[in-house]
């Protein structure tokens, strides 16, 4: 028995020796320690591809009063950094179908908003690159729509310490991912150095807030200035989206009140009422629920809808109990604040499917359609999947 190597005839023993030598060399190469440069070289975070159909300049859409947008949250997956987010991919597939279906109607989808927790750990570039960015590229290229992501606690950590190394690391990765999507530093619609931004389309103005910084004064003041300077003759609808819900009944809510929730109840909800915010979109709880806050001021009665739409693919949560809102309502008795839990999540995971929502803008009327995904395709939280958000 023999083998040929570069024209040299080797016997059996020689062939075995050659193979063994190659194997040893390969093993030594694999085991060779990394150079200092190799050890410290950071993995670059991939930016989401810009949308094929970006939003036009604000002035160009001033006359638009009919359109739709999609909203959801909490897409982090069980194998982030290892493979694509499977459950999230089901949601994206359904979104693409919705974008196509509505494209020929009076209410085409113009953008998507996400309320945070894109990945398990935003400090890990692999999780963004391997599991998340590719899916959103489908929305911006195949769907052609802009995508706006507010940060969750898993994305930038939950600390309020702006100098925290963990927050800085997560924030840097987040900003790299959305670099092509949100207003840059220096733009009137961006709070410099923060993941906090705004944009307007048609008669609707949206603000994305970092709810991890619920008590941070710079962000609060910037949000106030955005609302105070708004042309309400044009922007009849104001929508805000962020991660932590002011009211919820999952494991993050009920009798448990987290610090961001308390900060938003005390600092942001009065601000939202003062400026007649129409819709609040949040996540954090991996389920769907709908709250309505009614109040009165000199201009009459008003309604603010608060959605928890955290069904983007993260492990499903269940109903844990009602929050005690008696003190909250007493505190704002002069505004006659009353909070209604319009839709409660179910006590079993099978009650709370993966989902997203379609918000239909029709002048000053807002309508909502909840789209269940996969095994939840027949999800009907209102005994139907749709509801008007415009009744006082």
- The level 1 CATH classification of the largest domain is Alpha Beta
Q: What percent of residues adopt helix (DSSP H or I)?
A: 25-40%
> How many domains comprise the coordinates?
2
Poorly predicted spans: 1-32
Question: Whole-number average pLDDT?
Answer: 92
Describe what you observe in this structure.
This protein has 9 helices and 15 strands. With 392 residues, the chain is of the alpha/beta class. The chain folds into 2 domains: 1-41; 46-388, Purple Acid Phosphatase, chain A, domain 2. The strands form 3 sheets. Strands 6-7-8-9-11-10-12 form a 7-stranded mixed beta sheet, with no helix packed on it. The protein has a 6-stranded mixed beta sheet with strand order 5-4-3-13-14-15, with helices on one face. A hairpin with a 2-residue loop joins strand 13 (355-362) and strand 14. Helix 3 packs parallel to helix 4. The N and C termini lie far apart (91 Å). The model is unreliable at 1-32 (pLDDT under 50).
């Amino acid at each position: 028995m023999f083998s040929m190597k570069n024209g040299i005839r080797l016997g059996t023993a020689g062939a075995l020796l050659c193979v063994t030598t190659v194997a040893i060399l390969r093993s030594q190469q694999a085991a060779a320690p990394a150079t200092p440069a190799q050890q410290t070289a950071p993995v670059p975070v991939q930016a989401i591809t810009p949308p094929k159909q970006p939003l036009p300049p604000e002035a160009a859409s001033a006359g638009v009063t009919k359109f739709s947008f999609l909203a959801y949250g909490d897409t982090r997956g069980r194998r982030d950094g290892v493979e694509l987010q499977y459950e999230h991919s089901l949601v994206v597939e359904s979104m693409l179908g919705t974008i196509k279906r509505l494209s020929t109607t009076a209410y085409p989808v113009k953008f998507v908003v996400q309320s945070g927790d894109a990945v398990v750990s935003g400090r890990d570039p692999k999780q963004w690159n391997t599991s998340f960015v590719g899916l959103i590229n489908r929305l911006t290229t195949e769907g052609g729509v802009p995508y706006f992501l507010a940060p969750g606690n898993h994305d930038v950590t939950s600390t309020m310490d702006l100098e925290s190394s963990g927050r800085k690391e997560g924030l840097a990765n987040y900003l790299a991912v959305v670099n092509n999507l949100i207003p840059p530093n220096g733009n009137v619609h961006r709070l410099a150095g923060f993941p906090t931004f705004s944009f307007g389309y048609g008669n609707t103005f949206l603000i994305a807030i970092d709810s991890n910084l619920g008590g941070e004064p710079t962000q609060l003041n910037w949000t106030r200035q955005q609302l105070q300077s708004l042309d309400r003759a044009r922007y009849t609808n104001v929508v805000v989206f962020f991660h932590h819900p002011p009211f919820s009944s999952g494991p993050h809510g009920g009798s448990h009140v987290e610090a961001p929730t308390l900060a938003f109840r005390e600092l942001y909800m009065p601000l939202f009422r003062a400026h007649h915010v129409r819709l609040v979109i949040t996540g954090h709880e991996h389920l769907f629920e709908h709250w309505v806050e009614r109040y009165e001021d000199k201009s009459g009665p008003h309604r603010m809808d608060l959605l928890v739409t955290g069904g983007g693919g993260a492990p499903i949560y269940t109903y844990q109990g009602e929050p005690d809102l008696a003190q909250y309502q007493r505190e704002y008795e002069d505004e006659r604040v009353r909070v209604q839990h319009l839709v409660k999540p179910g006590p079993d995971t099978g009650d709370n499917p993966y989902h997203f929502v379609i918000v239909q803008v029709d002048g000053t009327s807002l309508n909502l359609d909840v789209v269940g995904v996969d095994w939840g395709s027949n999800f009907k939280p209102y005994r139907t999947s749709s509801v008007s958000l415009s009744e006082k």
